[in-house]
Amino acid sequence: MAVYAAQIHRMDIGAGKIMAKLKEMGQEENTLVLLLSDNGACYEGGPLGFDRRKNGLPAGGVDSYMSYGRSWSNAGNTPFRLHKHWVHEGGISTPLIARWPAVIKK
C-alpha cells in the first residue's frame, strides 16, 4: 500500500505543477483540465495480494509487479462494489474530474 500511496502522491504533485504553470501563463481559467483513471482497483493476489519483484529490486520500480490485494482493493473502490474484472460499479466505473472555470460553472 505504501507504494500505491506514493504513486498517488506523485500524481498529485504533477497535477499541481501543471495547474501552477497554467496560472503563471494566465491560462488557468480558460483551459480544460481532465484527470481520469483506469476502471476499478485490482484485487489480484487474494486477501494479501502478491509481490513479484525481479532480481531483488525495490517495490515500485519499472520491473516490479505488485498487487495490494482484496482488502485494499475494496477500500480503493469505496463506495462501489467489487473490483476490476467484474461488471459491478467497482469494476467498470471510470473516475473523471473535469475543470474549466470559464465554461464549467460550480
What is the topological layout?
Elements: H1 2-24, E1 33-36, E2 50-52, E3 65-67, H2 69-77, H3 89-92, E4 96-99
Antiparallel strand pairs: 1-4, 2-3
Care to describe what's here?
The chain is α+β, with helices and mostly antiparallel strands. The protein has one domain. Helix content is 34%, strand content 13%. The chain contains three helices and four strands. The strands form two sheets. The protein has a two-stranded antiparallel sheet with strand order 1-4. A two-stranded antiparallel sheet has the order 2-3. The longest helix is centred in the first third of the chain and has 23 residues, at 2-24. The two termini are 34 Å apart. The model has no long low-confidence stretch (mean pLDDT 83).
Q: Per the principal axes of the C-alpha atoms, what is the gross shape?
A: flat
- Count structural domains: 1
- The spatial strand order of the largest sheet comes to 1-4
| Proportion of helical residues | 25-40%
Compute the number of helices. 3
Low-confidence stretches: none
* Major β-sheet annotation: 2 strands, antiparallel
Q: N-to-C SSE series?
A: HEEEHHE
Radius of gyration: 17 Å
How far is it from the N-terminal to the C-terminal residue, by CA?
34 Å
DSSP E strands, number: 4
Mean pLDDT: 83
- Beta-strand percentage range: 5-15%
Secondary-structure-derived class: alpha+beta
